[in-house]
Amino acid sequence: MSFAIGQRWLSHADSELGLGIIVELDGRRVSVHFPAVEEERTYATENAPLTRVKLREGDVLHTRDGRKLQVLAIHEEQELLIYEVAGEGQRELLAELDMDDHIDLATPRQRLLASQYDSHAAFALRMATAQHIHRLQQSGLRGLLGTRTALLPHQLYVANEVGKRHAPRVLLADEVGLGKTIEAGMILHRQLLSGDSRRVLIMVPESLQFQWLVEMRRRFNLNFALFDESRLSESDDGGNPFEDEQLVLCSTSLFLDANARALALDAEWDMLIVDEVHRLAWSQVEVSEDFRFLQDMAEQVPGLLLLTATPEQVGQEAHFARLALLDPERFHDFTAFEEEESQYKRWSSLMDALDRGEDVQGLPSDIDPEAPSERQIAALLDRYGTGRVLFRNARASVGGFPTREMLPHPLPMVENPVYQNLYPDLHVDTELWLQEDPRVAWLVSQLKSLRPQKVLVICATADTALALESYLQLRAGIRSAAFHEQLSLVERDRAAAYFAEQEQGAQALICSEIGGEGRNFQFAQHLILFDLPEHPDQLEQRIGRLDRIGQRDRIFIHVPYIEGSAQETLMRWYHEGIDLFRSSCSAGDMILNQFRSALDEQLRQQNDRFDELLQETARFTTDTRKELSEGRDKLLERSSCNTEQGLSLGEAIGEIEDPERLGSFLEQLCDVTGVEHEEHSKNSSVLRRGEQELLEIFPEVPEDGCTVTVSRDQALQREDWIFLGWEHPWMENAMSTVLGSALGQASVGAMSLKGVPGGSRLYELLFTVSLSAPRALGLQRYLPLAPQRILLDANGRDLSKLLTHERLNERVEKIPRGTVSKVVRQLREEIETRIDDAEQHFASELESRQALAAESYSEQLDEEIARLSSLRKVNPSIRHEEIENLKLRKEAGLAALSTARATLQGVRLVITR
């Protein structure tokens, strides 16, 4: 080693000393001052644990006054280094004495040359992390991995189709029980991870706030802030509380307050999600305040998801008004909308004929008659279907639902005429009603006969639910809980949890009408409809609390009614006229509108035309179901779910998730970084914070540890475990932390290799592509991390194919630290040369990769721009903003791709024995 006073050296035995300065030379001794810690050390010149710090062209020089300057050239004067750097608008010269004393060896080259190296396991972890990130980037499944959801084809299709759009605006109207909340969560998750959305507002009925809060957290790892009146009044500085959070959840009723509306409109949002949107009243005569507010929000928020299981519950015109919220340009004339719907049967018939392989006549002129039938069908759906803004999957097409069994329970007539009404409890003193109404005594008897099975009881009002629950608890000795709108969110959740508890929980949950919307109670088989709602869609909502995907048992629907009353009339009309208890019906609103006056007359006082009404209703229902199936519903079914694509997405997700591979990587992460872990069961582990962690990769792990699983199936069964999928925030943070740290950047070892002389050198290098661009551009699929391993010998020959990374890992061994520093000093020039060779090799490859990525990116966006531009001529539901956004995205993407650069992620020097 050649020392000179004023040179900067690093102690590789104790890097925490910082960057030292040679202050004295005395024959066999050298004294070094370390300003960072105000200490001075003296070493024997022959074996001093010191490494000369020399920056290279392109490196960043950190100065003592806090500046970061790029090195343009290096000069040497009297054995001291002078750096020519890019200053503020001009070049300047800095002596090495001006370097910051707190050294930060930021590159693998610097760390290796300074003998700052890590274990071979750390180097292998770095390699594995880069490979996994690259694989995930290429998958095209961003946002669909790692959510705690079953891989149902219809949900995956909708989430993928809508989630990949820019600022999607759609109505999710799947029938009850098909998982609209999950679809919305998957779409949102994808939008957030892709960077298309950042600020999101969710508006739901007050009764569903806590359920949404829990679902977003438990299934999608999204932490929403719950806003109410008190939260809005918290801001002391007069600011906008909505701007304090990125993800906000609140009750729709919050915006009955003018100040809340003004604050929400004043904040900028990327996406608005509204559940149970049919509750927001609209008519040509009167528009409610909450619907008018939604109109104002819809005008300024780019992304809009509306959810309802009953899109036409309050009429076709109100349904049209909601579609106009999504795309006023497309839905601007109700008469034209009705005319368009009349054409659905024609398009459906054409597609059926194409499916059968027939030669069809009457294809629109803009569809190629020579194209394959699959492409013709896709074009018909794209240009003339309904699926761009409306997705509605039907239970019949999705399948997987249990059978329904309707059990009518006739009860003797009561002398008091008030019990002829639909809701006698609203007209009689509560105490008297509990004694007189035969349904009350029947309910007690029925619950006792069904013990210990869980029973959901739904009635129309909160007062009825309260009276029944109190009666069951205090007079009948039946464990029960009430669930109604007069309870707070916490109280409702507590009641639902008490009902869900298997051992000591409530046998019955007595709900008002709100129990028929939003909550899921698939663990119960018995539903008692204490009374019946006046709208068939509300009845469907009630039954849907039990009859959902995931329900494995038959559903028993109990309907008590007083003989000769309006209750019996309505029960028979639902049962014999619509067959609604045994099968779902999407035409409930249409059927009710057709027979409303005749039904109202029968409910007031049954006459001899009732049997005729039942027959007419049954005929109309059959014809309507057939017409919808042939027309709009069949088009919706086709455009709302491509089952084949949904299944393919599920298979691709299952393949990339691969619990065995994910579990192996998790174990590798924990072993190297020092996180304590022990096997709990297959595909699950218990994680605890380690006392000597090299990296804090899982800072959220609680003090007493937690159980995690890498299996989706286990995660769905054990909701108290953390599903540590590839896209879980913990896992994403861990992988980015590893690549962003110095861990594993440099390693040195020795190995025996048959046929290779002792003392030979091998250089294993890991390169990746660095691309700084907004996530929303989606460039990682075209130019991903692309980790490349290069293995060179001392002469620069590439041996990558002769000796794999895995085989090298198995055979390499540690060598003493003192030996490493000597070897590195002796090979410094060779090390620099080999790294330079590898960088040039990867940089030349990167140029061709950039060209291919730009070509592929342009082709795909040009194709989509041309497609949407063509479709817009016949299908106005394609918004002009979508096309313009794609053009801007292409321009920005191509500019970003040109800035990609090669990055050396790690280097390992191996000496053969």
TrEMBL record:
SMART domains reported for this sequence: DEXDc, HELICc
Per the annotation, the residue ranges of the short sequence motif DEAH box are: 275-278
Record EC number: 3.6.4.-
CDD domains assigned to the protein according to its UniProt record, in alphabetical order: DEXDc_RapA, SF2_C_SNF
The record ties this protein, via Pfam families, to: Helicase_C, RapA_C, SNF2-rel_dom, Tudor_1_RapA, Tudor_RapA
List all membrane-crossing ranges: none
Any idea where the Helicase C-terminal domain is? Answer: 439-618
Q: What class of enzyme is it?
A: hydrolase
Gene3D superfamilies assigned to the protein according to its UniProt record, in alphabetical order: 2.30.30.140, 2.30.30.930, 3.30.360.80, 6.10.140.1500, P-loop containing nucleotide triphosphate hydrolases (3.40.50.300), Tandem AAA-ATPase domain (3.40.50.10810)
Question: What's in the keyword line of the UniProt record?
Answer: Activator, ATP-binding, DNA-binding, Helicase, Hydrolase, Nucleotide-binding, Transcription, Transcription regulation
The UniProt record lists the keyword Nucleotide-binding? yes
- Where's the Helicase ATP-binding domain? 161-329
Q: Which HAMAP family match?
A: Helicase_RapA
Report the PANTHER family cross-referenced here: DNA ANNEALING HELICASE AND ENDONUCLEASE ZRANB3 FAMILY MEMBER (PTHR45766), SWI_SNF-RELATED MATRIX-ASSOCIATED ACTIN-DEPENDENT REGULATOR OF CHROMATIN SUBFAMILY A-LIKE PROTEIN 1 (PTHR45766:SF6)
Q: Which family does it belong to?
A: Belongs to the SNF2/RAD54 helicase family. RapA subfamily.
**Subunit info?**
Interacts with the RNAP. Has a higher affinity for the core RNAP than for the holoenzyme. Its ATPase activity is stimulated by binding to RNAP.
What the protein does comes down to: Transcription regulator that activates transcription by stimulating RNA polymerase (RNAP) recycling in case of stress conditions such as supercoiled DNA or high salt concentrations. Probably acts by releasing the RNAP, when it is trapped or immobilized on tightly supercoiled DNA. Does not activate transcription on linear DNA. Probably not involved in DNA repair.
> What is the recorded name of this protein?
RNA polymerase-associated protein RapA
